Amino acid sequence: MTLVHHKSGSVEPPLIEEKLRLYSMRYCPYAQRIHLVLNAKKVPYDVVYINLVQKPEWFLEKFPAGTVPAMNVKGANLYESLILADFLDEYFPEPRLHSSDPLQKAKDRLLVESFGKIGPHLYKLLMGPDFTEDAFQGVLTMLAKMENELKNRGSNFFSGEKPGMPDYMIWPSFERVDVIAVRYGEKGKLPVQTLPLLTKWISAMKDDYSVKPFYLEPERHALHLEKRRAGAADAFDIL
C-alpha cells in the first residue's frame, strides 16, 4: 500500500472546510504526538504528509524551519510537537489531557523531557550502521527509569487511570523500541520480565482509541527505516 508524501514540485492540496490541517510525516514520532492528541479529543482534521528529504517549496514558504508537525490555525503558523500539544489541549479543552494540578503538570513535563533522552540512543540503533551496546544500554536504562516511575505513581498510566498528555507524548518512542529486535534479532530483545508495569502499559496503550488508528507494527517501522538508510526514493510512501 502506498501513501503520498508531498515533495518538491508538488502543489498543496486545497483546504477542507471545517477541518484543521495538520502537516505531518507518517513515520515521524514527533508528528505522531499530534495525531494522538487530535484523536484523543476527537477533532476532525485533514492531514497533508510531507517528504522531509525533498520538502515542497510551498511548505517551506509557510514553515521555513521545514519541520513537522506543523499547523496553520486562523492564519498563524504553529510548529513543534510539545507547543502544538499544549495549544490543542487549551483550544479544545475536552477531554483535558494535561493535569489540572499545576504541580503535577510540571512533573509530567519534566517526565517527558527526561524521557526524551532516549532519542539519541534509539536513533543510533535504528539509523546507525551496526548494533552498539552503549546505545542499547542507554535504552534499557531509560526503560528501567520509566518502570520505576510507573511504580511510584501507582497507576496504570502515567496520567492516572486513563492515558493523558505524558502518555501520548512518550508513546511514539515506545512504539519504535521493538524495532531494535526486528533489526538485530535476539541481542536487541528487551528484558520484558524486568519491566512488568511497562509491559502492561504498552499493551493498554496499543488498545487505546487514540493510539490504535495510527499504530504501526515494528516490522513496518523497520521497513521504512531500512529504506531511509538506503536512501530509497519510496521510503516515505510505504504503508
TrEMBL record:
Domain (GST C-terminal) ranges: 101-225
One Pfam family linked to the record: GST_C_2
GO MF term list: glutathione dehydrogenase (ascorbate) activity; glutathione transferase activity
Gene Ontology BP terms: glutathione metabolic process
Keywords from the named record: Oxidoreductase, Transferase
Gene Ontology CC terms: cytoplasm
Domain GST N-terminal: 18-96
Record family assignment: Belongs to the GST superfamily. Omega family.
PANTHER family, A to Z: GLUTATHIONE S-TRANSFERASE OMEGA, PTHR43968
Full protein name: Glutathione S-transferase O1
Protein's organism: Bemisia tabaci
